[in-house]
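HOLO CASE FILE
Compound: magnesium ion
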Amino acid sequence: MSKNSSSYWATDNLSLRFRQKTTMSNKLVEQAKEKFGIIIEEQLARVEEMKKSVEPVDYSTIAPIVIGVCFGDGIGEVISRHARHVLEHMLKDGIKKGKIRFKDIPGLTIENRVKHKKAIPDDVLAELKTCHVILKGPTTTPQAGDKWPNIESANVAMRRALDLFANVRPVKIPREGIDWCFFRENTEGAYVLGSKGINVSEDLSVDFTVTTEQGSERIIRMAFEYAHKNHIDRVTAVTKSNVVKTTDGRFSQVAFRIAKEYPKIKLDEWYMDIMTAKLIDPARRKDFKVIVLPNLYGDILTDEAAQLQGGVGTAGSANIGRRWAMFEAIHGSAPRMVQEGRAPYADPCSMIRASAMLLRHIGYAERAENVEMALEMCGQFEKKMIITGRDTGVTGEEYTDYILSWVDHPQLKSRWESEVHRLK
Ligand code: IPM
Ligand code: MG
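Model generated. Tokens follow.
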């Protein structure tokens, strides 16, 4: 072959390869655009839904209030039974009078979810929708490398399916004067399309984060309303709007817009990185009171806060929407504890704290306060029993009985008040 003809073929091959490559990448771009288009349409439809006004639920007019209980799996199964037991105790008059009804909803186990290949099987979701409020035990979230197929987290799916936009997570450390209430946005940010990211090619993956005016406004307004009702003069917004300029930028702008409606409340914005540092700065941390933040930052910061309170096993959370509300622990199902035979020693306090939030939400504020004071008497002050998550401490059942021994104790309030006073 002459030199010329060889270079002729080489050029031709190259241009063919180039043409093929361009066609291929055009195809990938078109496919990605199509998927992106669907995502945008869905999000615009969600915005329209949020714009519709819905009457807030007035639990005082509902009888019976149906409390759905999903036990979850792993330690969830064990600790939600303890929490249900406490709830039943606190509501026994309401149950007798027909004002309260419990509805156990099985089927939110990892085995059943895998069987139906759904984060929440359809029949379970339909049952959940027949309830007014839900107590949900921790559920296993499959992760890469474990034995489960990669179905979505049941928590995330439930928050989205029931539009539970506010994740309210209180953390208190009385001996340090810390009383934080986190308002984590629960239906947007990095979570809303968490399982809808696009693998554009073998080399390129893209995830999405979403912030809407309405979604930001409703959580920020809730935080300000909470501050206003509790005579708190400061709300802190946590973002990374110096870098994530568009979505976090919007969240921040909405916060400053809403703040104008509450002239007695000062809004300050902190970036997520420095905020994680300030939470462990004793000189600064007790000054934070109400903290409002996008979904992923809220997930991270509330684990840190709960750890300072005594561990993620001590914190409960309320997921509040316009029609439904769901109450849960802030931690997962701890499969390792179950494998190691430690499930009976799991700390039920997170779920009992979530139950107290449920009581307050449906109008039983005094009963809720008793559970909260009892939790503090047992966990922070009297400490007659210790729960360690292993056989070096008492079982969850024994600890629940310890809490129950305080909830209706005639000296609960006076003892609790004098303990708190002693700290000041
Ligand atoms: C939480 C949990 C969940 C979340 C997990 C289990 C998906 O960490 O409730 O904070 O990330 O929201
Ligand atoms: Mg979390």
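CASE NOTES: Residues 3-51 form the longest helix (49 residues). Residues 107 and 124 are 6 Å apart (CA to CA).
CLOSED: yes
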